[in-house]
Write a structure and sequence with these properties.
Layout: H1 31-34, H2 86-110, H3 118-141, H4 147-171, H5 176-197, H6 204-231, H7 241-271, H8 278-306
Helix pairs in contact: 2-4, 2-8, 3-4, 4-8, 5-7, 5-8, 6-7, 7-8
Amino acid sequence: MRSSNPVFSRRGFSRDNGYAGFNAQPQAGGAAVGTQGNPYAQGNPYAQPQADPHAQNPYAQNPYAQQDLQHGAPPQAPATTGRMTMDDVVLRTGTTLGILVVTAAVAWAALPVDDANIGRSYGIAIGAALIGMVLALVQSFKRKASPALIVSYAAFEGVFLGVVSSVVDNRIASGAAMQAVIGTLAVFAAVLVAYKAGWIRVNRRFYGFVMAAALGFVLLMMVNLLFAAFGGGDGLGFRSGGLGIVFGIIGVLLGACFLALDFKQVEDGIAYGAPREEAWLAAFGLTMTLVWIYLEFLRLIAILNSSD
């Protein structure tokens, strides 16, 4: 089973034993036990080769089993240069979000959404969204992080968000963009606090529930889009009126669940010594999740103001 976020299914964030291995600790004394908690115990691409292959070293396949795990201490990556740290994740995530915000601001200012120019602005926004989607798919299927692809994705996604935010803010609900930003930050902070406090337990059941709910949500939205394309309007009404509000709230809650899964994957990557370049994948995944939450908030605000 892969991570909910496609970028975390790449090397360094996958699990070899079929599940994410949540809440499992690496065990010393053998590969068969080590694979239960350490996804890199077998064929770890980051493990250092053993100098003497005949030496009886029970920690040869598990570089973290020497930690004081018998007392319940969490796995810790060795103090080795080139390993991903939380500072790396924060820096890369700040970079991608910063680029996204800057390009969104430029698009907001340079692409007016008045009656004379809204068609051109919409066209540019849709083109930017399609390019961003292609870049995201390419990065998701690459085995290594490509900073150029990730930064380009953030830039094009920013153009799309800038135009959409301008339309909602100027033509539907004044101040909607700032409200959506505040809502997104509030969800991020709440999930982070809940995750660190242990109120959210990311385990197999949680993973399965989130993935099933997300699959159902996406399928319903696709059906609604098809009905809208052939029948006009909002199709089955999942994105407007009362149903739109309900599905908007569900979308925000799903985004919050994805954040919890992202936090767990980042924590595991740091604990098991993923290379520093994987921080770009972490930033990529977190950026996509935050964009999801922001768009759901923006849609909710637009629906609420349209119904007044």
